[in-house]
Design brief:
Blueprint lengths: L5 H5 L14 E5 L5 H12 L4 H11 L7 E8 L2 E11 L8 E9 L8 H15 L5 E2 L7 H9 L16
Parallel strand pairs: 4-5
Antiparallel strand pairs: 1-2, 2-3, 3-4
Helix pairs in contact: 2-3
């Protein structure tokens, strides 16, 4: 949100109303001024503040490879209410070139307004324009809300299995 502050938004002042129609959503590339909002939205969803991570991602996505990378925000009435980031990856793990969604977050107070769907649709359009025919993401097994969202977008369990090991 340009010209406002997060405390006013969170206290309800200038807050986007629950039920505002999704047609008022404007999707655009993220800008440096959006980073504070992105950090706050992510922190509200994950419980962790990661300003350095988001700064690094923004800077990396601002470099070349336009058309293969996307870091988008959703605005309603000039207020950032969500974001998505992802990029086209080529032939990792023996897979065909595909689009990867790294992060998608929408203000929890207005999640039912199809903002996440609009962000996802836009990044899928960018991926399709880059020539890929598949989109992937990774989700924690326990995160049923995010799993349900991506299933509603047509994603299903793919052919790869995530594996990990703790490095103590």
């Amino acid at each position: 949100m340009r010209g406002g502050n997060w405390e006013n938004v969170m206290s309800g002042e200038n807050k986007v109303a629950v039920g505002e129609v999704a047609r008022e959503v404007h999707i655009r590339p993220a800008e440096a001024d959006d980073l504070a909002w992105i950090v706050k939205l992510d922190e509200s969803a994950t419980g962790q503040a990661k300003p350095r991570y988001w700064q690094n991602l923004y800077e990396s996505f601002s470099l070349n490879r336009t058309g293969c990378r996307a870091f988008l925000v959703a605005e309603i009435n000039g207020q950032v209410v969500g974001f998505i980031s992802g990029e086209v990856r080529d032939f990792e793990f023996g897979a065909e070139s595909c689009g990867w969604v790294f992060a998608l977050t929408v203000d929890p107070a207005i999640r039912v307004n199809s903002i996440g769907t609009q962000l996802f649709d836009e990044i899928c359009r960018i991926f399709a324009d880059a020539g890929v025919r598949k989109v992937r993401t990774m989700i924690e097994h326990e995160n049923q809300l995010v799993i349900a969202f991506f299933r509603s977008q047509g994603l299903m369990v793919g052919r790869f299995i995530g594996m990990e090991k703790d490095l103590d």
